[in-house]
């Protein structure tokens, strides 16, 4: 039965149609926010997937280019693989939804969001986030929701709820917050050094709006929600856990995991598994559950050690950071490099500089962003965690980590006018034991400075974890979590920023939300840790950006020309500009506004190209002196090319102070000569003299 529900959200109408389309999905919400239209569906398999120890949730965000009136490029003229924005949006939808499904649920679930129309006033990403929550809440899929999501901007010191595309362009904050009825469950932010107190205020401003949306969703569920279906639990039997503790005592498990050496801990656990497999070899039901049972046993042991005994697996204090090290210039010949090490997490970032024409072109639904000048890429090879598997290119996690570091560094980058380069940083994970994304921010900051990029301030990142007990006030926040504390803990709260404020946040949790006290403590802890990393580790390695780019980096000169002269520089079918490029070996980019960037590795050739461009674009005046090449000889004189595509004529009478009968008596093709401009002749051609050069230079 078709029903439509509406509410006013941030001054625009949100409409949810249920039962109108996609009736065979477990749940479907046809979302309209302004003229933005998204079809959100939730589907689940009838039975659990066999042989897995995780919840198989897939989240898709499909950008249809017809939504903005475009036909896709390429030979097929079809949408191809998901864009980076689509992948990042899928991750933002996934993070608050995943913790709200039952932990022992193993049925495949897919949340699909198809963007069918885009209104610049209403974010399709936000619409999809709300759509997934509504589609799942009204479906028969077990789900402890609803949750709601709100975006917050900051313009001239004032918060803007669900900003439109134009507002996002000038906002100092791009914050996305998801909430349950009581708590915040997901935070993602990019910010222009927003102070910690202001960030907390923005988070809870979004939380307030989320409560209004949740009340709206509750109304929809009450009217059209389906009864949740029963499912086959995949929880480890309590009998198996009890039997394990008879064989491996809690003290023995604590001794196995209490080490800061990841390899040693993994070896200890491997031996425990072997022992249990021998003991339960004849129990076919239990033998296949040992991996999950040992995981659960480890998890309970680590959580008890931290929460009750205040002991961390590597022996650190609750607020203590692992040993840190920073160095630069570890890779020769690249434009910039740096390495940052935190315990068993090690990242090397390499910076590459290029002309602005090498900026990444974007083909998506955002009309305001067609290119990206700064690119941060993150790689996570299997050897970094001691595993062996073939490389299949970056996955969603790698793309997400790269985008987080990129978002953290964008606020401190120089403008194109200050530094006319496209910039790429690549973070290679050499070793991983937790929080590599934040290490990549530290390494990238130093790499950019080593490359001579005049960033405004240093940026550092750190992550906090959390272990909770039975009540809201029974918890411990951990500074600088390692891998084990991430796996078995409840939160990964990543914060990056400068001395003056936050530039990026990404928060993942495994529980049903955080209290305000936990959020504030995590932000305070990351601030303290960030100050230490900036002052005591990164600054001693490199205190400020180098004054010039490296010897192997391209050099760029910029000049401004009259936009009406662009055609003169380019020439017919590109003949003039190609001649300059061939002659000097440089790369030339010209903007519509007349900004010319000349890029090359040899300063002399760059200067020569700039000289030629200035000659071409300067109005000729009598008395100007040029050096050129004889390109044509006629009976009445010679034509001299003084810049690519630019020629002037030297009449035979102006070649020499002595009378000559034939031009060839003095000049041959290819001769280089100095000439002085005499103005233009009756035919409008530039007229030159060779014999008057000396008089002009006296």
Automatic annotation (TrEMBL):
Which reaction(s) does the protein catalyse, per the Swiss-Prot or TrEMBL entry? RNA(n+1) + phosphate = RNA(n) + a ribonucleoside 5'-diphosphate
Protein location: Cytoplasm
Any one GO CC term of this protein is:
cytosol
Q: Which organism is it from?
A: Velocimicrobium porci
What HAMAP family does this protein map onto? PNPase (MF_01595)
Tell me the protein's name.
Polyribonucleotide nucleotidyltransferase
Which annotated residues bind Mg(2+)? Answer: 486, 492
- Asked if Nucleotidyltransferase is a keyword of the record, the answer is yes
Keyword terms:
Coiled coil, Cytoplasm, Magnesium, Metal-binding, Nucleotidyltransferase, RNA-binding, Transferase
């Amino acid at each position: 039965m078709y029903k439509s529900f509406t509410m006013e959200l941030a001054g625009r109408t949100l409409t949810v149609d249920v039962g109108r389309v996609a009736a065979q999905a477990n749940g479907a919400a046809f979302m309209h926010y302004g003229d933005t239209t998204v079809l959100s569906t939730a589907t689940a398999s009838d039975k659990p997937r066999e042989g897995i120890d995780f919840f198989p949730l897939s989240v898709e965000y499909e950008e249809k280019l017809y939504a903005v009136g475009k036909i896709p490029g390429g030979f097929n003229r079809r949408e191809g693989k998901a864009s980076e924005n689509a992948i990042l949006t899928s991750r933002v939808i996934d993070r608050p939804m995943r913790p709200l499904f039952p932990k022992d649920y193993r049925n495949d679930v897919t949340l699909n969001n198809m963007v069918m129309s885009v209104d610049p006033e209403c974010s399709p990403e936000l619409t999809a986030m709300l759509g997934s929550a509504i589609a799942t809440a009204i479906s028969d899929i077990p789900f402890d929701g609803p949750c709601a999501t709100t975006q917050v901007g900051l313009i001239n010191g004032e918060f803007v709820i669900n900003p439109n595309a134009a507002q996002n362009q000038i906002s100092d904050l791009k914050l996305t917050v998801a909430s349950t009825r009581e708590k915040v469950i997901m935070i993602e932010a990019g910010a222009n050094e927003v102070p910690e107190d202001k960030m907390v205020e923005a988070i809870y401003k979004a939380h307030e709006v989320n409560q209004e949306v949740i009340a709206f969703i509750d109304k929809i569920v009450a009217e059209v929600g389906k009864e949740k279906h029963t499912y086959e639990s995949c929880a480890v039997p309590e009998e198996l856990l009890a039997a394990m503790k008879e064989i491996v005592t809690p003290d023995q498990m604590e001794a196995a995991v209490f080490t800061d050496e990841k390899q040693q801990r993994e070896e200890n656990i491997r031996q425990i598994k072997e022992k249990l497999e021998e003991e339960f070899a004849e129990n076919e039901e239990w033998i296949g559950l040992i991996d999950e049972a040992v995981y659960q046993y480890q998890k309970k042991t680590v959580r008890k050690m931290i929460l009750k005994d205040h002991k961390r697996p590597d022996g650190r204090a609750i607020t203590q950071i692992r040993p840190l090290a920073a160095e630069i210039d570890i890779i020769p010949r690249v434009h910039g490099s740096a390495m940052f090490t935190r315990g068993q997490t090690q990242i090397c970032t390499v910076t590459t500089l290029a002309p602005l024409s090498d900026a990444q072109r974007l083909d998506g639904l955002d009309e305001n962003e067609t290119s990206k000048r700064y690119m941060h890429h993150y790689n996570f090879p299997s050897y970094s965690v001691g595993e062996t598997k073939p490389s299949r290119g970056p996955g969603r996690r790698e793309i997400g980590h790269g985008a987080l570091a990129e978002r953290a560094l964008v606020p401190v980058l120089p403008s194109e006018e200050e530094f006319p380069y496209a910039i790429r940083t690549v973070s290679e994970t050499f070793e991983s034991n937790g929080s590599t994304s934040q290490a990549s921010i530290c390494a990238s900051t130093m790499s950019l400075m080593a490359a001579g990029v005049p960033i405004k301030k240093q940026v550092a990142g750190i992550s906090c974890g959390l272990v909770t007990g039975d009540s809201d006030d029974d918890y411990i926040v951990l500074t600088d979590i390692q891998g084990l504390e991430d796996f078995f803990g409840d939160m990964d709260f990543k914060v990056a920023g400068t001395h003056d404020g936050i530039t990026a946040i990404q928060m993942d949790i495994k529980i049903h939300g955080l209290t305000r006290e936990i959020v504030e403590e995590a932000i305070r802890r990351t601030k303290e840790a960030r100050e230490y990393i900036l002052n005591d580790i990164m600054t001693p390695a490199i205190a400020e950006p180098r004054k010039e780019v490296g010897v192997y980096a391209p050099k760029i000169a910029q000049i401004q020309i009259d936009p009406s002269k662009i055609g003169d520089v380019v020439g017919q079918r590109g003949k003039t500009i190609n001649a300059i490029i061939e002659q000097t070996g440089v790369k030339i980019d010209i903007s519509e506004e007349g900004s010319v960037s000349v890029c090359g590795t040899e300063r002399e050739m760059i200067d020569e190209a700039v000289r030629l461009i200035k000659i071409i674009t300067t109005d000729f005046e009598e008395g100007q002196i040029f050096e050129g090449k004889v390109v044509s000889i006629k009976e009445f004189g010679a034509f001299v090319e003084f810049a690519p595509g630019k020629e002037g004529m030297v009449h035979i009478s102006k070649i020499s102070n002595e009378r000559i009968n034939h031009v060839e008596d003095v000049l041959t093709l290819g001769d280089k000569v100095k000439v002085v401009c005499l103005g233009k002749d009756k035919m409008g051609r530039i007229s030159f003299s060779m014999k008057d050069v000396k008089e002009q230079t006296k």
